[in-house]
Amino acid sequence: MSIRPATAADVPELQSIYAHHVLTGTGTFEEVPPSVEEMAARFQHVRDRGWPWLVSADASGVLGYAYATQFRDRSAYRFTLENSVYIREDQRGQGVGKALVAALLDVTAAAGFRQMIAVIGDTENAGSIGLHASLGFHHTGTLRASGLKFGRWLDVVYMQRALGPGASTVAAEDPTPV
User: Fold this and answer.
1) Any idea of the CA torsion for 119, 121, 122, 126, to the nearest 10 degrees?
2) For 42, 49, 166, 175, which has the most beta carbons within 10 A of its beta carbon?
3) Bridge-partner residues for 123, per DSSP?
4) CB of 51 within 8 A of CB of 178?
5) What DSSP assignment string belongs to 70-130?
6) What is the pTM for the complete model shown?
7) What is the rounded CA–CA span in Å between residue 50 and residue 12?
8) For position 173, what pLDDT does the model report?
9) How many CB atoms sit inside 10 A of residue 172's CB?
């Protein structure tokens, strides 16, 4: 297994992995899978802003992916990222997600970002909550019954981790593109 920056050639596999999660899971509140074209546009949006999108791959193809985007659009959030991670169904529980998020943390800290937020769909999503906790994320809040999917109300769990010096110093310059 290797971890590398995603490329446009990976988009069909990214879309396939995500579509499975949309249709079967509560980690995303999206209910209709995006097309390959829409996924390509999302990928390009992330890369155009200099944010990282990583894939884990082996001879069988893309095993999973993780990316980070600015937490909110306001300029004051420019040092704070939200991460997303999705793993191919046959690779879940094999350490792919942890390796991807760990690599994402390293890349974003080196670029000068200061905080990473995980917005996790469903308080019953023990895999994602455990993965983030194992990498030093702390529970910072829960939004109760904030999404409706598969005929039930779902919570959203917020977890947060400092990157690099975190809030111990004021940043001298904006983060560099990844």
Assistant:
1) -70
2) 175
3) none
4) yes
5) ESSSSGGGTTEEEEEEEE-GGGTTTTHHHHHHHHHHHHHHHTT--EEEEEEE-TT-HHHHH
6) 0.96
7) 21
8) 87
9) 6
**Token pair of 170, please?**
């004021």
Split at pLDDT 50, 70, 90, the class of 22 is: very high
What digits encode the pLDDT tens for the residues 131-158? 999 999 999 999 999 999 999 999 999 9
Amino acid symbol at 66: A
DSSP code for 9: G
Query: What are the structure tokens assigned to 175, written together?
Result: 């983060």
- Dump pLDDT digits (tens) for 28-65: 999 999 999 999 999 999 999 999 999 999 999 999 99
Residue 171 has pLDDT above 90, yes or no: no
Residue length of the chain? 178
Please name which of 118, 114, 119, 120 lies closest in space to residue 76, comparing C-alpha atoms: 114
Say if residues 142 and 121 touch (Cβ distance below 8 Å).
no
Query: Measured between alpha carbons, how far is 123 from 129 in angstroms, rounded to an integer?
Result: 8
Q: Which residues contact 23 (CB under 8 A, 6 or more apart)?
A: 33
